[in-house]
Amino acid sequence: MSRWRAALVPLAVVLALAFAGSRVVDDVSEAASSADQVQAGVQQAVRPVANDCSGGSVVFTFDDGPRQHTGELLDRLRDLRIRAVFFWSGHNLEGRGDVVRRAAADGHVLGNHTQSHANLTSGVLPSGATVAPWGAEQIRAELQGASDLLERHGAPAPQYYRPPYGAVNRQVDDVALSLGMRLVMSYGHEASDGLVDSHDTEGISAGEVSANVIGQLRDGVIITMHDGLGQATLNSIEALQPIVDEMNQRRLCATTEVRPDASGRVLQFGE
Ligand SMILES: [Zn+2]
């Protein structure tokens, strides 16, 4: 072994040790880095609607509550910074002043979904029974009953209504207009009407719900979802984050202001 080689061997050992040491340091810093990422990931687990409306705005609506998962839905909407329009039925509002006050305090708009979830054009109730006779007086009672309960629980008088099953005609709308309410509907219309049905009551997954909405997402649309019973509502709650992610990509924000041109065409029904 030459003197040079003899000198190089310990140098190589020193370099190897130094390299190994640096790897240890790198591992530590990588571990710290990934810990930071995990922490950041936890902090970013909820990605709310960005405060950027340059791409326009959409309206989220939820029918049929308040029910068993309304508290979770309100929590999720708060975390995602979404203010929505709820269409609630009077028969679900008895003794629910707490949830009415919370929804109103959170900035949501409370709309009318009739007292008993009646079909307003036929008088058929959810039980299958038919109210007879059925006319303007009965339609008025169905709408007024839900509005009275909302107001009794401290909510403003509803300005919007959505007829159960999408059942609406000129007579129904005339009564509602006389009570100061405008129709916000999402059934029986073409996608070009600016109304998006999530189909979230049809036993589909959260991914399918979000895909249905994202596929029609654009400025001015009204998104229809449900706050009903069971897994369907939990799926709808889960579907909100991917919808919001897409909204942020397109710089859409959420509003409770229903554009007149988004619901005006429904006044053409039944003629
Ligand atoms: Zn309904």
Provide a brief overview of the structure.
The protein is α/β, with parallel strands linked by helices and 271 residues long. Helix content is 44%, strand content 11%.
Share of helix among residues? 40-55%
Can you list the ligands bound to this structure? Answer: zinc ion
CATH architecture of the largest domain: Alpha-Beta Barrel
Task: Tell me the overall shape.
Answer: globular
**Overall average pLDDT:** 84
CATH topology name of the largest domain? TIM Barrel
Largest sheet: 6 strands, parallel
The radius of gyration is 27 Å
Low-pLDDT windows of residues: 6-37, 264-268
Question: How many structural domains in the coordinates?
Answer: 2
Secondary structure tally: strands: 8
Q: CATH class of the largest domain, please?
A: Alpha Beta
Written as H for each helix and E for each strand, in order along the chain, the element string is HEHEHEHEHEEHEHEH
CATH superfamily of the largest domain: Glycoside hydrolase/deacetylase
Number of helices: 8
What proportion of the residues form beta strands (DSSP E)? 5-15%
End-to-end span in angstroms? 105 Å
The computed structural class is alpha/beta
